[in-house]
Amino acid sequence: MNLSLKVYYVIIGDINKEDSLNNRFKEITDLETDVVFSIDDDVIFPCSSVEFAFDVWQSAPDAMVGFVPRVHWVDSLNGEDNKFRYGGWWSVRWTGTYSMVLSKAAFFHKKYFSIYTNEMPSSIREYVTKNRNCEDIAMSFLVANATGAPPLWVKGLQRQLQEPVHRTISRFHRKLNWFNISLLV
User: Fold this and answer.
1) Which of 1, 20, 145, 164 is most buried, judged by most C-beta within 10 A?
2) Residue 76, phi then psi, degrees to nearest 5
3) What is the rounded radius of gyration, in angstroms, for the C-alpha atoms of the chain?
4) Phi, psi of 108 (to 5 degrees)
């Protein structure tokens, strides 16, 4: 007996009046699934890598499961125990540890959209808007704080595009900041 599972993808884009990276995590009304695959428009993954990450997410649906790890640590070398340092991919590779995964390519539960917009301190969202940066770090920490558990990093083949799609479309469509892809099973 051959059983087949129908899987289909819905790509949801949203045009916003305000040009803020926080729009990436606005709650999506009428979303028919619990899982969201948030991905930047300048990366490509093979379907097999995305399917593997989805399987991992299904085993831990409250966690953030992503492909882009980063690390942070207390800046005790400079005697500043209340400040942190941020390490990119090479820090992860050299140390073999990570403390967050970025939403550049990650699965997470849709409930985090509401928490990001309605419960996360407004000072964080204001920082993101003002600096046009760090929304991915904010989401990773939000999920970790909500669950009390670390994010899950999955390795996958990733291809970075030279010219992000959002640079090739009109100014009007630039406000369609990011794509959130829902996997419906």
Assistant:
1) 20
2) -75, -15
3) 17
4) -160, 165
Which of 70-74, 86-90, 136-140, 174-178 bottoms out in mean pLDDT, i.e. has the lowest? 174-178
Q: Which of 19, 34, 75, 136 is an active site residue?
A: 136
Cα 1 to Cα 105: distance, rounded to the nearest angstrom:
35
Q: Is 136 a catalytic residue?
A: yes
Judge contact between 137 and 99, C-beta under 8 A. no
Provide the pLDDT for residue 66: 95
Closest CA to 158 of 58, 69, 43: 43
The model's pLDDT over 149-165, given as tens digits with 9 standing for 90+, comes to: 999 999 876 666 555 44
CA 41 to chain centre: 12
CA-nearest of 91, 119, 80, 104 to 160 is 104
Tokens 């989805």 label which residue? 54
